[in-house]
Amino acid sequence: MLLVLLTTTAAVAQQPPTAETAPRLRATRTEHGIVLDGRLDEPVWQRADVLTAFTQVEPDLGAPAELGTEVRVAFDDVHLYVAWRAREPNGRQGLRVQNLSRKFDYFTNDLVGVALDPLGDTRNAYSFQITPFGNLRDLHTLDGSFFNRQWQAIWQARTQILDDQWTAEVAIPWTALRYTPGTTRMRANFHRIARRTNEMSAWVPWPRAMNAYRMDFSGWIEGLEPPPPRAALALRPYVAGTTGTTAGRRQQDATLGGELLWQPTAATVVEGTVNTDFAQADVDRQVVNLRRFSVFFPEQRQFFLDTATLFDVGTSDDDLVVRPFFSRRIGLGAGGVPLTLAGGVRAVHAGPGGSSGLMALHQDGLGNGPASTFVVGRSSRNLGSTSRLGGLFTVRHDRAASTAATTAVTGAVDGLWRITPNWTVEGMASATGADAAATGWAGYAKAQRQTSQFTASWLEAVVTDRYEPASGFVSRTNVALHAPSMLYDWRPRWLPARLRNLNFFARSNVYTDLTSGALEEAFSEAWIDVYGQRGSLFYPAIQHFAQRVLEPFEPVPGVTIAPGRYNYWRPNLYYGTDRSRRVWASADLFTGGYYDRTLDQGVFEVFASPSPRAAFGLNVEVNRFRGSATSTVTTRLIAPEVRLAWNPRVQLTAFYQYNDAIRQGTLNARFAWEYKPLSYLYVVLNDARDTERRGLPGPARTQLLVKLVYFGQR
Question: When comparing pLDDT for 620 and 363, which is higher?
Fold first, then answer.
């Protein structure tokens, strides 16, 4: 591993274009705007420069794209417009789109997309992607590695599907972008995924180990004349009503609230919030936690997701998650019980030199915990063209009637250094304290090398026993982690035509007690991915565990692991068909040791999409514990799901989860209508029932929500 990581590999590292060699596309001004219908029949498209030079990223990096793609760019004083013409000889029958969701899966759908870097600093990528059926996906990426997939902008697109091609028109308001006054150009990259042939192509290709959001691999859109940035004001009020039953008691509630957004400059947004409401947020998907440590559930609430890239500091590596700030600590009490957020304010600035943000929120306890005030500050400064250094602090003040008030503070310093386009080093150091007394600290450092054939990394992390970020999350303390990993993408010429490549992957996570240095846990695995040309995947894998258990724990009812030392192996076999097809399935099978017994595990998925307007899925996980002094214990997690759509803006989704490990069944059904950009009507039904193991009905907690959100801007 050290040889791979620290020496030059045999693979030739692909270099990004220089400022002189980066390709250029001239944008064309229109004085009459664009009728957004996907037809490309406006005069401006007839006279605009046409980009046709697309190059493969997959399967043959550097080769000309097999399916032709054209791109044109235009603008006026309100919008930046992008038009695509994507050749598809099989017409509608050759297109693959799984559903019409706003945040569709990137790798399993036909799409075209543009990644924009309006500041031209190669750090921030604002990406806009669209499928042939018109559903949208937008995301913000920092340094090609920190993703905010829930970022949303006000933009629109329309498409047309023709006999041998599909077309798309996109309108991106200038107010959705952050640019320097007087700019005449911005970095950009255009790319396309054609799932029938499983081809990914781009204007400026990037090494396969990277992604479309590495803006050092990009060209320039020139000839732009964006309007001078002006102050803007937006209002996002909501009205919501809920009714429900808990423990036989009926509860009803009505709420008014919302956000006021002020954008004094193109680079600065100030947002005030009152009665911040997350009732329509996605519920967490249940898991059967077979590990000894807490499961890390990601943030699902839109208010916090809007600026997640800026405030996201720390690392997560399987069981070791270290986040000095984690927004789920705000507005959620013990066991995920929602708490009232009375209100707060957030200010964010993003410019050529870096980004800064400040957030303050007040949380009411209402019997579920202390009333709390949170203050979070963040600043990240660019160093040169490829590196950055930042700092973060959090202050949490808790006040309860029965106990003395407490104040907890957390600080962190983090940085990323891109030594070369292929070499990256990143790290963080963080400390916590309460009532002016220092308690503990944590930190990590990671080095990574990426080429089109090799990816290798080494992570070192430590957490002291008293590191307690009151506004953050840490999964375990008094531990040191040593985590090397390596991947080799092998594409020998002798592979059969139906196979694309072989991926050899190996990694180890070794956890040691920070005080004594004794081994606490070691996990190692290796596998060989066998990728089919059209997207199927097969792999055999082997896993090894070494565990030192100091206290008994119960992963599921009826299974208790006693203290002791354990060593065991677990083979694994996976096969999945092409996930872009109308029907696909996968099976992930494990067996072998599990502490003092044997664990057989199977995870099965089946998905059917007769059309993008109707999609059905089923996920089943079965765990069977056997071979110990106690009887065999079996758990099941069954999760069917359905998504129906009239169009990309009117959708009904529902999923059910039955987890017999905790004897609970939950239903989440949601109707969403985006009646204008970022304005929604939601109708949400949540139902949770404690059941007997055989599924008999039990006590229910039911909630029906109706929420109307309006977004207006001027």
Answer: 620
